[in-house]
Design a protein that fits this description.
335 residues; 0% strand; 18 helices; mainly alpha
Length: 335
């Protein structure tokens, strides 16, 4: 059993990164791997199937409703940003953008927060370097903030589901860490993002079609279903190898999240048998590292894709910021 689960884990970690067709059909691939893991781990039963069908519903409905609302109020959003640029100092606007998106992402989901970010950034007319910096700092903020509720992003959904925890569990566990980080990223935006010329303005991308909203919601549903299966299937492996690992080791191990989806790693690592300090270390490692490179988190992928930010452009700013944040949080909170 252990050998089979290790092979499945290796496939889950390597193939989406190495094979482009699998990356494009990630949800379906993970669902197949999740079913295989659940069967191999001896965890497949009627209860797990019911859980796999039910658990994705809250975040899926949130993504769907928030996506429709965002599309309906698209013009008001772009008009409001142009108005704010006239009455508010640019650097204050950047700070508020990063902080507010981080805070509301736990309610509107990281996906919709990223779409708002892309729209607002396109309206600001920033120079390329400043645009990239603002997007990366905001994606760090969104990725962290969305983890505070089970409906914010897949990582938080699967974590709460695996631990059978209450809605406020993640806020109670990492809320202070996350809110502090969001504030710091907002301040950094004021320092590192240079305003454009006053007369400059950009053109935001057009609103996405309704069909894309429904397609994305369906993909989220399948993704969470797959992670539920994976998490259950890997439970015997976690019990055997990870429950006694020191929190500091777990924290640095999860730098893998820079290149691998952090929700998948959460499904493969977190167990109700772990102490809260170990779970906290895993989550902070995943969330901070997830902002370093484009594949690490959903907001990164959405923003980079729509604004055509290359992997190199992202890494030149995202990696140093993430490494400093990792060291700071390790010293003050994990060590």
């Amino acid at each position: 059993m252990t050998t089979g689960l290790l092979i499945i884990l290796l496939l889950v970690l390597v193939l989406p990164f190495a094979v482009k067709p699998i990356e494009r059909q990630l949800e379906l691939f993970l669902l197949v791997m999740g079913i295989a893991a659940a069967i191999t781990g001896g965890m497949m039963n009627r209860e797990l199937l019911g859980q796999a069908f039910a658990d994705p519903l809250p975040i899926t409905l949130t993504v769907l409703v928030a996506g429709i609302v965002f599309r309906l109020f698209y013009r008001q959003l772009t008009g409001g940003i142009r108005l704010l640029r006239k009455v508010m100092p640019d650097r204050l606007l950047y700070t508020l953008l990063v902080i507010l998106l981080g805070l509301v992402s736990s309610v509107i989901t990281a996906i919709i927060a990223a779409l708002v970010l892309v729209t607002v950034t396109g309206t600001l007319g920033l120079a390329r370097r400043s645009e990239i910096r603002l997007v990366i700092l905001a994606c760090y903020s969104i990725g962290l903030g969305a983890a505070l509720t089970p409906i914010g992003e897949p990582l938080s959904t699967i974590t709460v589901q695996k631990l059978d925890a209450e809605f406020s569990f993640l806020f109670n566990l990492i809320g202070l860490d996350v809110l502090t980080a969001i504030l710091m990223f907002g301040i950094l935006a004021a320092v590192w993002v240079d305003p454009p010329e006053k007369e400059a303005g950009g053109t935001p991308p057009p609103p996405e079609p309704v069909s894309s909203i429904f397609t994305r919601s369906f993909k989220v549903y399948v993704f969470i279903m797959a992670l539920t299966m994976l998490g259950a299937g890997f439970e015997p492996l976690i019990r055997e190898h990870l429950t006694d690992v020191a929190p500091g080791t777990l924290y640095w191990m999860n730098m893998l999240s820079a290149v691998l989806d952090n929700a998948t790693l959460a499904a493969a690592e977190i167990s109700p048998l772990m102490q809260y300090d170990a779970i906290r270390a895993i989550l902070l490692g995943l969330l901070i590292s997830g902002g370093m490179l484009i594949p690490g988190n959903i907001p990164n992928i959405i923003s980079a894709g729509k604004l055509r930010i290359t992997s190199g452009e992202w890494a030149r700013f995202g990696v140093p910021v993430g490494l400093v944040a990792l060291v700071v949080y390790y010293i003050i909170g994990i060590w």
